[in-house]
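User:
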Amino acid sequence: MALSNEVLSKEDERIKQKKLIVALKRILISLGKTVGALIVIVGLTILPLFLYGYFSEISFESLDFSSFWFFASLSIGSIIPFVFKKNKKVENYSEASMLLHKLILNNYNLSKLLFSFDSKFKSGEKMVDKSEFVIVTGLARAGTTSLTDQLFKAGKFSSLDYSNMPFLLAPNLWKKLYNPKKAKLKERKHGDKMMFGLNTIEALEEYFFKAHLNDSFIGESILTKHDIDEEIYNKYIAYQSLIRSENSYTYLSKNNNLILRYPSLRSLNKDFKAIFLFRKPEEHAHSLLNQHLRFSEFQHDDDFIETYMNWLGHHEFGENQKVFSFDNEPKDFSYDKNSLDYWLSVWLNYYDHLLTLDDSEFLLIEYQDYLSNPKEVLLYLENELSADFDLSNVQPFKNNKAIDTTNCDKAVLKSVAVVYEELKKRKVQFK
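Assistant: Predicted structure:
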């Protein structure tokens, strides 16, 4: 599949040739390992027979291969490696499912090929592109998942959900093969009482940008600010039309990486709505720290979790955590990642840059306002989005946890306090 992926590449022929050679080399190495493994297996299987014949002074040809003891010993010997093999638990994913994810999500050119003819599988509907769409964004743990979920349930929106995995760029093709109607809900790994299932919407559109930009904005420790051109933008709009369940519906997404490409996207589209959320810095940093520790442990126990997050461009916390770089330079906060100061610095880095953007072009909402008065926030958004919401099931939340900042760097606390006050001045003011 990797070799096929490189064949589909539209890069310069010299670059393409080098990548094809690398892919071919990997195939040959893999083939060599497989052949070598088979030789070792056959050798280890036959070796005991030769040893038995040697010490018993019986010729190999005269051994009785039809006896019960031969088959019993062969069976026991085959089981032993699996008895001592330590399998790491991979929750919700079988070996076949992980292989399918790897085949599709690891190969961008293949995914883009599927994207190019996916509209053929959206039967009965004429594709209509719309410049109006809604993106909910902010630094992770700012309440973006909750608000996106509430918007989706309240209004007529279309969005990606877990059932679209792993064919994220070909949702209609995949739906022909796999279209679950109901899915059992369970709490997500964040431990925040947010429930999810196969039909739950999630931040999955980032894979579109990863594939079409070939991970050019993803560095070893940073995610860099970048522009998207008109060609990528037009493909993005076409992608949204593939996802919309009805052409009259509005595309909705949660994407916490939006800030990296927001200026160029806004220059190409004045119509879409961007909703940025922010949160009290010490509460926000504490939540990020908790998730970092939590997911680092998960990823240590299960390698697939980190791989999965990398596929989707989720580098907010955990062992694959990366910092936003708005000047495309490495970031060194001089604090341990397991300290509150580090995550306060992450908060400061993000929201200090947000204040440099033209705030007349996006909506800025404080998480606490949404927690305390979700109906009021949604009524405001209903008006802003010219939508019709069902708010019958919306209830306020409570979050009164106090965060101890006694041991934090005073200079960092002072800096985040200044930015936080400025954010509160610019936010949407509710009565």
